[in-house]
Structure formats: structure tokens, C-alpha cells
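Translate sequence into C-alpha cells.
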Amino acid sequence: MKKIALSLLMAAAVITGCAAPSTKTTKDTKASTSTTAPQTTPSPASTPTAEKIPVATSFNPIDKLVQYIGGDRVQTTMFVPAGVEPHDYEPTPKDMARLKGAKVLFINGFDMEHWVDSSITKQTKLMNLSEGINPIRLADHDKDHDHDKEKDKDKDKDKDHDHDKDHDHDHDHKHGEFDPHIWLGMKELRLMAKNTATALTMVSPQDKTYFEENLAKFNKEADALDQEYLPQFKPFAGKSFVTGHEAFGYLCRNLNLKQQAVEGPFAEGEPTPQKIKALVDHVKAEKISTIFVEELASPKVSETLARETGAKTVQINTLEAEGDLFPTLKDIYQKVLDSFKK
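Result follows.
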């Protein structure tokens, strides 16, 4: 696993005191840029920067978080294009060119950005928003996946070279040891927001008050969501739901829930027949009526699971490729809650 986590304090020594940044950004048809926060309009600071701070963000939830805390002081360029599954993303030279001019690249960490390497760190500084978060260590399903991978390779060894190369690319990519979906846990998201405010203050110290005000607004929205939903989830403590992608570990930890999934945290591919049978048995035993399907994922296996158990499929957004923070989190809460009430 590539070790990409960098301490914010280490980065401070390098980037604190930078000159006022240029507003010039690299134009590309795949780039996604924004200058305003999606949930609220930040209040003005007494001494704002004259120009917007050009920063890069790795993928959608990181971009939305930096927009929220940075408000109209930042110009963000999202590295993984909107609508693209970040687990499958591999940067092109054109993508790399979008880093030019960015003061920093904000990343999630925990190997979500598996493509970060020395060619990127030589161009810009990293701000790892997972700093200080207590991660969920991945379960032994990775070992099972490795075993299935070897069986798949044996079956495919007589096929053409191009197919073997593609197959190896899909499976030989080494994932991290921790669940990377920290933005779906409210406790973790709060710390990510705090890290964002700290990092932006390092880049633009004169806007410290502005970033802190936006962080306070962020926490206020988070409080409101918790106050609305935490009491509603209490009667369902320990209850499980089934999803196509194992992305809700931190949400489950915070809400005292359990998840069963078709694919693992890194969307490693279709499950074995044994895994499908275990899921069918679980759905029937727990009388689960809903199978959640991620919007960008193939619904094939989940639909099969639903047919065999009499459940229905419902789309759910993990924020990985699209969606605003609090509206999407509220939608997730409501859909999971509704599935327990049926």
C-alpha cells in the first residue's frame, strides 16, 4: 500500500506564508470547477483575500467539503471527473496537467486515491483529510477475494493476452488495509471539515476567521442532522441492511448498525456463489425487504439477490461521484431508516 498520508503540521512548514495565489486555472473538458459552497452562503470576512486560492481536490466529497469551508475564497479543480467511479479511476497525462497552478491537492486518504504517487507529490503538496481519524480495519473478505482472484486467473490463462492484461489490472491493484469511506460517518466528516479549515488557513492565514466561521456553520448543520435522526435510529440498534457496495462502515459504527454487501469497500468485483448464497440466507433470516444499489454500480447481482429473496432494490448515493454533502447524507439516513420500518 502506498503511504500517502502526510501530517498537516508537516505541510504547514512548507506552505505557510505563500504569496497571494493567482486565479488562473487549467481548462479541461473533464475538469470540474466551482467557487461557491453548495449548502450555505458563507459570511464575508473582515479582511478577505483579493484573489481566489487555486486548489485541487481528489473526488466529489472532498471537493464539496473544500467548497463548503473555503467558500468564495477558493477555486477548486476536481481531479476525478464528476460521474466517474473513483475506485476505478486512473489518471491520464491530461488529468495530471490540471494540477498545475494548484497550491495543494486535498485527498481523502486510506488508499482511496491509489493513483497518488511521486509524480503528483512533486507537483503539489498533499493535504490528507483523514488525519486523526480512527479507521476501520478491513475484514478478512480481502483474503477471500485474493483466493477467488487466483481461481479466476487459472480459468483465464488460456485466453488472449489483452484480456489477461486487463484482468490482471483489475485484480492486482493492491488496496489499503482500512475502509476509506470516512465521509459517510458524521463523526469522521466533522474531523475532515476541521482538517480542511486548518489546511486552508495554512495556505491563506489572513482568511482564518472566514474559514472558522464556515466550519462553525458546517458543525451546526451536522448537529441538526444528528438531532433529527439519531433518536430515530435508536430503536433499530444492531439491525443490518444489505447494499451492493460495502461503503457504510463508518455510518454503521456511528449509528450502531450493521451492513452486509455484495462487493467489498474497494468494489473488487462480482462475489462468489458462496457469498451470494450467504447473502440470500441473511436477507431471508433477517426479513430484509430492501437491497440498496449504488447509483453508479451495476445492479445485476443486487437485482438477482432481490428476486431470490422477494426484496426490492432501492438506489442509494454514496457521494463518491456526485451529490452535495448534507442533502445526500440526509437522503441516506432516510432511506436506511425507511427500510427498517417496512
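Note: The beta strands are 32-34, 53-57, 74-78, 104-107, 125-128, 240-245, 258-263, 290-294, 312-316.
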